Amino acid sequence: MRLCVVLSAARMAPGPGTPLKGVHPGRWLMLLALRLLFLVPAGEPVGRSESNVPKAMDNVTVRQGDNAVLRCIIDSGVTRVAWLNRSSILYAGKDKWSLDPRVVIVTNSKTEYSIQIMAVDVYDEGPYTCSVQTHNHPRTTRVHIIVQVPPKIVNISNSISVNEGSNVTLLCLAIGRPEPTVTWRHLSPTARGFTSDDEYLEITGIAKEDAGEYECSAYNDVSLTDVRKVQVEVNYPPLILETRNVGAAVGQKGILQCEAYAVPSAEFEWYKEERRLFNGLNGIQIKKNGDISVLTFFNVSEEDYGNYTCVAMNKLGTSNSSVLLFVQFKIVQGSHPCTEESQKILSTTQQGPGAVLDGNNRASAGVTPSLWLLVILFVHLLFKF
Question: Staple partner for 68: which of 62, 114, 226, 305, CB 3.0–4.6 Å?
Answer without folding.
Answer: 62
